[in-house]
Amino acid sequence: LGIPLGVVYFAVTGFLAGLLFTRYVNGSLTGALFYPMFFISYLEVFRYPYLGSGRAFACAVCALLVLGLVYSARYKEQSAPILEDIFSN
Hints:
Layout: H1 2-25, H2 29-44, H3 54-88
Helix pairs in contact: 1-2, 2-3
């Protein structure tokens, strides 16, 4: 990649890791699921590209699945009273 693209790569991943860390500290589910994966990728960046490995891919797919299930359940809980109000008239 060279030095210029390496700097861009670390800037982008650092920014994403900072956002995820902020969410992790605030107790967000997104931060709790994705920040540890980014942290491990920073520890392993010079030895092994962790985010390109099968372990990271499986972790990311499972985290996205959990987020989808949690947010769809929250959406159903929030929309149920609205639908009851609409159809009760």
